[in-house]
């Protein structure tokens, strides 16, 4: 679908409409303009970056190691090269203070994005922001969107389940995730992203109880997309998996060429 005639605001409104419980939006995460154009050509509804992949493609580690100006430049190339709504993973917002987060979100919108992922993990994996502090950060992101006049889709990522091995995922963690989902929704988030959670029972519990659409991340074909839909998931993304797959294919090609196979 071509959206050249669509304004940024219209693309943002479209992107909101794609989040339907039980009919999940599929996002094959990209890392640059070339990969974005390739995914657009497959019939995708929207384009989503993955911070891990973007960092790796620039020779950096994930965790806000890539300078923010490079993040913006990469985003600008992506939004100018495709017609689809673009959402960007901005990790923790590239700022500890709410004023930094707000300014960064304003710049993200200026560079064409209609959605963001913003996580509650403290920089360098030192635990999570408190609910209160993360809500302040989400609130200023919403303020930035309001000032820009763009209905930005804020996908609030919680790293609760990444901080524990899957064997330790339990009702206590799920209840905490639901509490965060409720608080984040009140602060202006439009979706809750729960990477790391694999247990189908707990995924369904979250989908049943969350006031905002639930996004899961998969790295393989299990559980099936159809089954995730029946659990009530509204958005499915693939994180670094597409980049890793492409790099494996490139490596195999290089080996065949260089060994004369």
Write the layout of secondary structure elements.
Layout: H1 8-17, E1 25-27, H2 33-41, E2 47-48, H3 51-57, H4 68-81, E3 86-89, H5 98-110, E4 115-119, H6 131-148, E5 153-157, H7 171-187, E6 191-193, H8 200-209, E7 214-217, H9 225-230, E8 235-237, H10 241-259
Parallel strand pairs: 1-8, 2-3, 3-4, 4-5, 5-6, 6-7, 7-8
* Class per helix and strand makeup: alpha/beta
Element pattern in H and E: HEHEHHEHEHEHEHEHEH
Spatial ordering of strands, largest sheet: 1-8-7-6-5-4-3-2
**Shape designation:** globular
Q: What is the total tally of β strands? A: 8
Distance between the termini: 40 Å
The mean pLDDT is: 95
Largest sheet: 8 strands, parallel
Q: Indicate the percent of residues in helices.
A: 40-55%
- Any idea what the radius of gyration is? 18 Å
Low-confidence stretches: none
The percentage of residues in β strands lies in 5-15%
Summarize the structure.
The chain is an alpha/beta fold and 261 residues long. 47% of the residues lie in helices and 11% in strands. It has helices at residues 8-17, 33-41, 51-57, 68-81, 98-110, 131-148, 171-187, 200-209, 225-230, 241-259, and strands at 25-27, 47-48, 86-89, 115-119, 153-157, 191-193, 214-217, 235-237.
């Amino acid at each position: 679908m071509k959206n050249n005639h669509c304004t940024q605001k219209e693309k943002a409104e479209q992107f909101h409409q794609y989040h339907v419980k039980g009919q999940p939006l599929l996002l094959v995460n990209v890392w640059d303009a070339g990969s974005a154009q390739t995914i657009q050509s497959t019939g995708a509804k929207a384009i989503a970056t993955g911070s891990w992949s973007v960092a790796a493609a620039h020779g950096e580690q994930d965790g806000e190691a890539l300078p923010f100006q490079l993040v913006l430049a990469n985003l600008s190339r992506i939004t100018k090269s495709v017609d689809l709504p673009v959402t960007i993973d901005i990790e923790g917002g590239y700022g500890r203070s709410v004023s930094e987060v707000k300014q960064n979100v304003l710049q993200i919108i200026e560079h064409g994005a209609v959605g963001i992922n913003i996580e509650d993990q403290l920089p360098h994996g030192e635990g999570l922001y408190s609910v209160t502090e993360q809500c302040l950060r989400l609130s200023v992101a919403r303020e930035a969107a309001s000032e820009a006049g763009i209905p930005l889709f804020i996908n609030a990522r919680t790293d609760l389940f990444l901080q524990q091995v899957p064997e330790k995922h339990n009702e206590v963690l799920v209840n905490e995730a639901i509490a965060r989902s409720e608080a984040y929704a009140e602060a202006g988030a439009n979706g809750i992203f729960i990477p790391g959670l694999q247990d189908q029972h707990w995924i369904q519990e979250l989908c049943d109880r969350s006031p905002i659409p639930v996004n899961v991340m998969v790295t393989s074909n299990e559980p099936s997309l159809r089954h995730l839909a029946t659990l009530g998931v509204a958005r499915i993304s693939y994180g670094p998996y597409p980049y890793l797959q492409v790099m494996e294919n490139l490596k195999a090609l290089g080996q065949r060429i260089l060994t004369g196979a």
